[in-house]
Amino acid sequence: MSRVEIHGYAIVSDNDRIADATGRTPDVLRNDADWAYFQAELNRSDATVLGRLGHEANPNPRGRVRVILSSSSRGIERRADGWWWNPQKLSWKEAIRSVLPHGGRVAVPGGRQVFDLFLAIGYDAFHLTRAEGVIVPDGVPVFSECDAGKSAEAILAEAGLEPGAKRVLDPAGPVSLMVWRR
Question: For the whole model, what pTM was predicted?
Answer without folding.
Answer: 0.96
